[in-house]
Automatic annotation (TrEMBL):
The keyword Transmembrane helix does not apply. This is Tetratricopeptide repeat protein 9A. It comes from Fukomys damarensis. It comes from the Eukaryota. TPR repeats lie at residues 190-223.
C-alpha cells in the first residue's frame, strides 16, 4: 500500500480501538445510535444505504458500549482525564503511522466527552435521569473544564482529519466535515482552514477551496503547501472559466 504523506500532523496532547470496529463508523453518534450497523469505512467515498448484517462477533462492540454507560455515571474530571489519555494515545499511534488505531483512539476520546458536549439543558436532563436511576449526578462544568473539553474536541477532530488524509483512498467528504467542526469552534485554526481547502479542492468545489486556502494563507503566508494548493485551485478555476466561455 502506498501512503500519501501530508505535512500537518495531528495536534499532540502531551484498547486501541480494541475497538477497531469503531473505525468503521463515520462519527460518534453513528457508532452509538443503536442496533443498525452501517457498512461505512473511513477510507470509502461511498455510503451504503443498507444496514450491514448483524455481526456474529458483535461482542467486539461490548467494551465500547460499556464505556459509554459507565461514562454517564462518571464525574466530569474523570471523563476529561480519560479523554485526554485517549487523545495522547492517538497522537502516539499517528507518530507510529498506525493511522487506523489512531482514529480509534480519537473516537474513544470523543466518546468519553459525548455527554459533556451536550447543550447545558440536555446535560441537566441526562444528569437528572442518571440521578433517578441511582447513578451519580454529573455536576456542571467549571470554566476551566469547559475550555479543556473544547480543546480536546478541537484537537481530536483536527487529528481525525489528518489521519484520514493518510489513507490511500481519502474520504474528502469526511475530512471536510471534521474540519468544519473545528472551524465552528476556532474560526482561525490554520490546520482546519488548510485541510478544508484541500478537501473542497478534491471534491471539485474550487470557489470554497480557494476561500479556505486564502484564509489559511493569511495565517501563514509562507506555507508552501497552502501556496501550491492555491495555485492548483486558481488553475482549475481558470480552466472552468475558459470552458464556459467556449460553450457560449
Amino acid at each position: 500500500m502506498t501512503w500519501t504523506t501530508y505535512p500537518l500532523a495531528p495536534d499532540d496532547g502531551s484498547g486501541s480501538a480494541t475497538m477497531e470496529d469503531m473505525t468503521k463508523y463515520s462519527d460518534i453518534e453513528e457508532f452509538t445510535q443503536g442496533p443498525k450497523i452501517r457498512s461505512d469505512f473511513i477510507h470509502s467515498n461511498e455510503k451504503s444505504d443498507h444496514p450491514a448484517p448483524v455481526f456474529s462477533s458483535l461482542f467486539k462492540l461490548t467494551p465500547c458500549l460499556k464505556v459509554k454507560r459507565a461514562g454517564a455515571a462518571a464525574e466530569p474530571a474523570e471523563l476529561i482525564r480519560r479523554a485526554h489519555e485517549f487523545k495522547s494515545q492517538g497522537a502516539q499511534c499517528y507518530k507510529d503511522k498506525k493511522f487506523r488505531e489512531a482514529i480509534g483512539k480519537y473516537h474513544r476520546a470523543l466518546l468519553e466527552l459525548k455527554g459533556l458536549l451536550l447543550p447545558a439543558g440536555e446535560r441537566e436532563r441526562d444528569s437528572r435521569a442518571a440521578s433517578l436511576a441511582g447513578a451519580p449526578k454529573i455536576g456542571c462544568l467549571s470554566e476551566e473544564q469547559s475550555k479543556t473539553v473544547e480543546a480536546i474536541e478541537v484537537d481530536c477532530y483536527n487529528s481525525l482529519a489528518a489521519c484520514l488524509l493518510q489513507a490511500e483512498l481519502v474520504n474528502y467528504e469526511r475530512v471536510k466535515e471534521y474540519c468544519l467542526k473545528v472551524l465552528k469552534k476556532e474560526g482561525e485554526n490554520f490546520k482546519a482552514l488548510y485541510r478544508s481547502g484541500v478537501a473542497f479542492y478534491h471534491l471539485g468545489d474550487y470557489d470554497k477551496a480557494l476561500y479556505y486556502l486564502k484564509e489559511a494563507r493569511t495565517r501563514q503566508p509562507t506555507d508552501t503547501n497552502v501556496i501550491r494548493y492555491i495555485q492548483l485551485t486558481e488553475m482549475k478555476l481558470s480552466r472552468c472559466s475558459q470552458r464556459e466561455k467556449e460553450a457560449m
